Amino acid sequence: MNNRLSPLSAYNIQIYAYNESETSEKDFAQNLCYDDRRDFLTDESFRGIAIKLGLRNQGFFKGARRMISVSIVDLSARIPLAKQEIKVDISRNDYAKEIFTYFPLDMDKGPLFRTYRIMVCDETARRMICETVFHLFDGRSLRHPAQWYKASTGGLRLSWMSDLFKTLDTDDDCTYYVKFILSQHITSVPPAILPELELRLYRPDGQVEIQFKEPGYIDPGNGCDKELCVEFPFTTSEGNKGVHYAELLCMEYAIAGFAFDTRQQSAPGGWPDYLLVPMDEVNLDDAKERLEVFLHPEKSKISPTVREEDNLDSLIDDFINSERDKMKDDETYSSEPDKEEDKQPEKESEEEKYDDAQSFSSSLDNLTGLKAVKEKLTVYEHVVRFNRLRADNGLPVAPAPLHAMSLGSPGTGKTTVAKIMGKMLHSLGVLSKGHVVVRERATLLGQFYNSEAEKTIAALEEARGGILFIDEAYQLYQPEDPRDPGKFVIETLLTALADDSQRDWMLILAGYTDEMLRLFKMNPGFRSRIPDCNIYQFDDFSETELMQIAENYLTRSNYVLTPEAHAALSDRLKSDFDRRDRSFGNARHVMNMIQTEILPAMAVRVMDQGLCDEISLTEILPADIPAPVVKKESARMRVGFAI
Fold first, then answer.
1. Which residues neighbour 166 within 8 Å (Cβ) at sequence distance 6 or greater?
2. Nearest-CA neighbor of 408 among 591, 634, 585?
């Protein structure tokens, strides 16, 4: 084998998925529009892959005559498909050369997703020059590319900050980022094979900057689940300031977009999903007017600059209606019924009530374990519904007690149940919105002593129409410290609870059982407002329930446990359950193990072996499961609460 270094290096390799209509000319591969995309959507007209390869001669002041080979391998099927040998002649006066070639591919209907590798070798030196991987998605069986992702937020980011802005006053020659926060809209495929995303940034000088990037997960750092996002850098300059339009595409189909002005005063906050609808035809003049409409909707309706042909009135209506639809979908939107709604027949109202009951029961049934909590919530829901029927028939009603306490260890579903309660109470007209505002000691204490009431009052105002959920509420009560500022928070909450005229909100105090009962005992105001029937005990999940939580999570994410991996995970969770102590996270412990141990181990194994087929990307093996920790003799007793 010849071990000499090759004088050739690759400075660029681009791919194009060509169709039947593009093969009419003999040298058609040289006339195609190449770019840096690596994911392609195919249909019945797909015929193959064309390659544009840029080679550089590293032998200074010397010519280069080499025989190179270009090979393509189907990694999904793990078979080589084709190989071509090409003579390359670069004279001493030339520094680089571009070559073009193509591979016809037969895409009979089969797997929805295939992975291929292109390898370029110097046959004389027997050296790899470059390689790259690309993917083909079968558009005949998959959904439209615009449905793969749903953009929830878009905006601009400074390189040294994580906060988003709608528009930015930029400095010259500085780097900023266009960022989109997304959700995986098609859940039937693993996250590992999600297609890449494309950003087209339309600049004031008429140039269009194009970038490709795969989305990734980030930790927002506020205790929430990881977010799927993608961001693209861009640089500003004096001669290129003004209105830009950032458009996000998936396999050449636009899925989101927003306009921004690099000369305007910075506007904090990202654009919500209902304002990220991409433009039908990109025009920076229209983008500028759209930006003004979205930034100043109160002015845009009466602005004399709005022209009929620009259809801005329709645009305003679209995003207002989108906001209304979104709020209805979240079940947090409330308004006074209009005359048409008043005329709806009573039969439709009864059907809606039936649907609400079914939705509530279904939400409870989808929760793992929590038998005692489910039974209590079902009784409570029946009481509230019964009272509503009496009120509708003109009968006197004794309002059901609203405020509650949730007792139990972390990760037992207290916040999830609070959200279900909010939706149920909103659907029955008890709460006008039904949203949940989560707070804890650190977010309720003020900046200065005696200023705690400010943040607590702000939290109460934010929770109006919904639920104020205070996690680890026992931390507010510190009897050993008479000057502890938590007492101001408690006093403010008790004052709000005592105001019977304000019933459009609900308080839920949550935390460990013993500490919460101590808080309950030492503050009679809470006891008088929270009866025993509204105290919910969230027991630790059993080892069987922990395994069920793991299986449900993996199934939703399109992962499959082999029988051996299933047994290994069951053994690990049994060991963790037996060893659990006060800090055991229950469902949170299961999620952390999957996300930080099992899936990373699987990823390392798959990538080290160079596997890209669908089975390898979805199947979890025993080697991916962390081994059980040696069991200790001491085990935490299961906590409980007897009324």
1. 155, 156, 258, 260, 267, 268, 269, 270, 271, 294, 295
2. 585
Which of 283, 199, 284 has the alpha carbon at shortest distance from 246? 199
What is the Cα–Cα distance from 608 to 266, expressed in whole angstroms?
45
What one-character-per-residue DSSP string does 394-443 give? T----PPP--EEEEE-TTSSHHHHHHHHHHHHHHTTSSSS--EEEE-HHH
CA 523, 525, 530, 532 dihedral sign is positive
| Phi, psi dihedrals of residue 500, rounded to the nearest 5° | -70, -15
Phi then psi for residue 571, to 5 deg, are -65, -40
How far is 38 from 137, CA to CA, in rounded Å? 11
Take residue 456 and report the two structure tokens written for it.
Answer: 């607590």
Report which of 411, 129, 133, 150 is spatially closest to residue 255, judged by C-alpha positions. 150
The H or E element containing residue 461 is helix 452-462
Alpha helices in 463-512 (DSSP H): 486-498
CA of 145: how far to CAs of 44, 137, 328, in Å? 16, 10, 26
Task: Judge whether 208 and 215 are in contact, CB under 8 Å.
Answer: no
Sign of CA dihedral 441, 442, 447, 449: positive
Spatial contact of 483 and 446, defined as CB atoms under 8 Å apart: no
How many other C-beta atoms lie within 10 A of the C-beta of residue 465? 17
Cα–Cα dist 360/357, whole Å: 5
- Alpha helices by DSSP H, 537-562: 543-556
How confident is the model over 271-296, as pLDDT tens digits? 988 889 888 888 899 899 889 888 87
Cβ distance 74 to 612 under 8 Å? Answer: no
- pLDDT tens digits, residue range 228-255? 899 999 988 877 888 999 999 998 889 9
Give CA–CA dist 128/122, Å, rounded. Answer: 6
Reduce the DSSP state of residue 90 to 3 states and report it: strand
Both ends of the chain: CA-CA distance in Å?
82
Beta bridge partners of 18: 48
Question: What pLDDT, on a 0 to 100 scale, did the predictor assign at position 70?
Answer: 95
Return the structure tokens found at 515: 């500490």
- Which parts of 478-545 are beta strand (E)? 506-511, 535-538
Q: Which residues pair with 66 in a beta bridge?
A: 88
Burial of 375 (0-12, 13-18, 19+ CB in 10 A): exposed
Q: What is the pTM of this model?
A: 0.48
51, 70 Cβ separation under 8 angstroms: yes
Residues with Cβ within 8 Å of residue 630, at least 6 apart in sequence: none
Cα separation, 393 vs 226, whole angstroms: 48
What stretch of H or E contains 588?
Answer: helix 587-593
Task: Give, for 175, the enclosing helix (H) or strand (E).
Answer: strand 175-184
Element containing residue 516 per DSSP (H, E): helix 513-522
Q: What sign has the CA pseudo-torsion 498, 504, 510, 513?
A: positive
How far out from the chain centre does Cα 126 lie?
Answer: 45
Query: Distances from the Cα of 194 to the Cαs of 227, 251, 373, 511, 557, in angstroms?
Result: 15, 11, 38, 39, 12
State the Rg of the chain over Cα: 31
Question: Among all chains, which residue has been given the structure tokens 């793992």?
Answer: 368
pLDDT at 530: 84
Q: Which residues of the chain have pLDDT under 50?
A: 1-3, 300-355, 357, 632-643
Strand partners, 407: 511, 537
